[in-house]
Amino acid sequence: MKSVELLRVENLSKTYPTGFFGSRKVEALKGVTFALDEEPSVLGVVGESGSGKSTLAKIILALIKPSAGRVYYKGKEVFSLKRAEIATYRKEVQPVFQDPYSIYNPFYRVDRFLELPLKSLMGIHSKEEREALVVEALNSVGLRPNDVLGRYPHQLSGGERQRIMLARIILLKPRLLIADEPVSMLDVSLTAIFLTKILQLKRLQHMSTIFITHDLSVAHYVCDRLIVLRQGLIVEEGPADSVVRAPQHPYTKALVESMPIADPRKGWKHQEGNA
Question: Where are the beta strands (DSSP E) in 98-243?
């Protein structure tokens, strides 16, 4: 018996109105189709700004509706789910966004951001149990609880806020993480911590991730498979190593050639080619 796919995006398109009174249309996505199997994996979605990556993330998270096409989660169409099923979907499919500040409510301390979903989504009503779980999760992402608990978001650095987002993921144990440019505002050391934790969650919590990024080198490191988006279209997909080492589409080749070399004695690949 064939297992049910974890996620299927089928012929997905999204058009935005633009111009005066929406007189013109911009196609952000054009017939995008791909699937994630039940087996935990990290799927990279790579492309430049304006390629449709964030629109894809918002549709999968059911934040906006597509103009055409469907999204299936465990065989059920996401935009046809009943109220109870939507609640389960919100728990099992969680986001991490690029900006580690805008997703926080500035009027609440970060404690609430971590404890409230444990109560409302996980059904843990014991405050002592919630607090113990929060402390454990913060320690696991390299944060000292005494340094961050009781503070407001603006009192924390961007790296601390993003790691708190990751601690929240650890607490909720989602089946699928939608990570939209999650490390673009982090320094190298924090990026390494974040990516390592994603790989640990894949192994230990059987969590799959759709990792959206413009950085092909980061995607190559953390992803099992890659999808390359250009102007709303998938131009290439396949195992991450194959896409990076033997790109087939000219756009993918251009992305690969723009990757920096991890050697301070050497320049960028395209610079070497022009030397």
Answer: 176-180, 208-213, 225-230, 233-239
CA distances from 227 to 45, 127, 184 (A): 5, 42, 19
pLDDT tens for each residue of 134-148: 999 999 888 999 999
The helix or strand, by DSSP H or E, that contains position 29, with its residue range, turns out to be strand 24-36
Quote the CATH superfamily of domain 7-102+175-274. Answer: P-loop containing nucleotide triphosphate hydrolases (3.40.50.300)
From the list 240, 168, 178, the residue with the least C-alpha distance to 209 is 178
Global pTM value: 0.89
Strand partners, 213: 46
Distance between CA atoms of residues 13 and 21, nearest Å: 21
Which has more confidence, 260 or 237? 237
The secondary structure element, H or E, covering residue 9 is strand 7-18
**CB-based contact 12:33 (threshold 8 Å):** yes
Q: Tokens 């986001």 identify what position?
A: 95
CB 256 within 8 A of CB 216: yes
22-31: Cβ within 8 A, 24+ apart? 27/232, 28/52, 28/55, 28/232, 29/55, 29/56, 29/59, 29/66, 29/232, 30/231, 30/232, 30/233, 31/69, 31/233
